[in-house]
Amino acid sequence: MAPTAPVPLSAAGTAAAPSAVKILIAGGFGVGKTTLVGSVSEVAPLRTEEYLTRASVGVDDLSGVDSKDTTTVALDFGRITVSPDLVVYLFGTPGQERFWFMWNDLVNGALGGVVIADTRRLDTSFASIDFFESRGIPFVVAINCFHGHNTRTPDEIRAALDLDPQVPMLLGDVRDRGFGRDLLLALVDHLMDLSAARPAPLG
Questions:
Q1: Residue 53 near residue 45 (C-beta atoms within 8 A)
Q2: Beta bridge partners of 87
Q3: Is residue 27 a contact partner of residue 69, using CB atoms and an 8 Å limit?
Q4: Where is 91: in which H helix or E strand?
Q5: Contacts of 193 (CB under 8 A, 6+ apart)
Q6: Which of 76, 83, 123, 191 supports an S-S bond with 92, CB 3.0-4.6 Å?
Q7: Closest by alpha carbon to 47, among 75, 24, 27?
Q8: Would you say 195 and 178 are in contact if contact means Cβ atoms under 8 Å apart?
Q9: Strand partners, 114
Q10: pTM here?
Q11: pLDDT in tens, 100-144
Q12: Which helix (H) or strand (E) holds 74?
């Protein structure tokens, strides 16, 4: 039998609770937030999807996602255990403008974020990018290429989104667990780079 990793103990000798990291998954309506959380979560993700009804006609913009028949009305939630002492919690935001008020609650305690964009509808990602930038929350950008579909070059996308050169941007399919892993690793590397670049406190 293979040896198991030691479990951290608290000062009282009991198993210590793992540290928790919160990451927000944001983006426009129908860009793949729910799909990304589901592809990387180690547990069945919590979803709050409801069917689109006639009440949403004229309210939700279905341009480019005409076949979509459900929508996230609160949040998506997933979990990844990195090690016995570190757990990552993923919170997917609702994409429609009428649910944006929930972002202010979901962002509390977030260490960083992932913004998902669709090259066919890049304008739907502007609000998410502005949201993270205005709050000083580091983020990476995922260009979701369903079935390899992409209409622009990386340089064109970065210019269209007006991204800071330091913001990592990856292209791939959010249904691919490997791509989701790469996104989260890129975010961790970005956070570490920003931390290393901060000036040391005086004193």
A1: no
A2: 20, 81
A3: no
A4: strand 86-92
A5: 166
A6: 76
A7: 75
A8: no
A9: 25, 140
A10: 0.75
A11: 566 677 788 889 999 999 888 888 889 899 999 999 999 999 999
A12: strand 70-83
